[in-house]
Write the structure tokens for this entry.
Amino acid sequence: MMLRQFAFVLGVVALACTSPAEKKAGEERALNARAQRVEARLAKAQATDNSEDPVAMWLMPPELNEISGMTLTDDGRLLAHDDEVGRVFEVDPRRGVIVKSFLLGKGLKGDFEGITVVGPDVYMTLSNGLLYRFREGGNKASVPYTTFDTHLGKECEFEGVAHDKDSAQLVLPCKNVHMKHLDDEMVLFKWKIGSTDTTGVSMMTVPLSEVIGTNKWKKFRPSDITIDPATGNYVIISSLDKGIVVLTPGGEVVRSEPLPGKHQQAEGVAITRDNILIISDEATSKPAAITLYRWNNTESGAATQ
């Protein structure tokens, strides 16, 4: 399978091959060299306790200009999705390539805002809380899907979804809350997987004063959520407020701080089992990108309440 490459800030190796086989072998060597440079920079970041500077940045091809959400499969592969079309990409974050892409149906249209994996199933959510369940497809495949309505579109505009394995629930943070009595709260809904009515829905609120802490934000409007595989905590980013917040599943604020690096429109977040924080940016005046950082999940003394 031919892999689609991204631009890489650490440098791209020039290839000068004379045959298809030599070219393919040269491309593979270049990609492996990229991965080795990423590993070296991760090791250096670990040794110096540096979680602020990017380890690597990959520029997206045009079909991922509106990269809107990311998640990791159980075997550690990164899935990302488009904003307006139900199209899922597998991305290799260490080598900077698209491995494959597939469609929901024939290219389902909608305002897609989050993706997560539950065992063999993948879930994507629309901004109105409508959920689509499907299985991962091969390259250029079209996969069938099942729809679930959380009946929460009047309460919230959603951005992001994550699977809380300990509770068998999907967690959906509200970007914009439509309930006036909750204007001073960050709101997260939890949906019991497979529920067909509102009995499977619960709500968790966290005072915005605690979420904001000592930061200079006026609000905190989530743009994506992931779950730290080491701690089980909820890690939520905000594109508009350029912040990152870590919550326990019970709603206690563990950390509240600015996003690392410089992000124009951070719309997706994921954390690997070996502590790599991955943030995706949609295209603005700059190309869309995926950026890697060392993730520091040390909790003691980090809260900014």
Notes: The two ends are 49 Å apart (CA to CA).
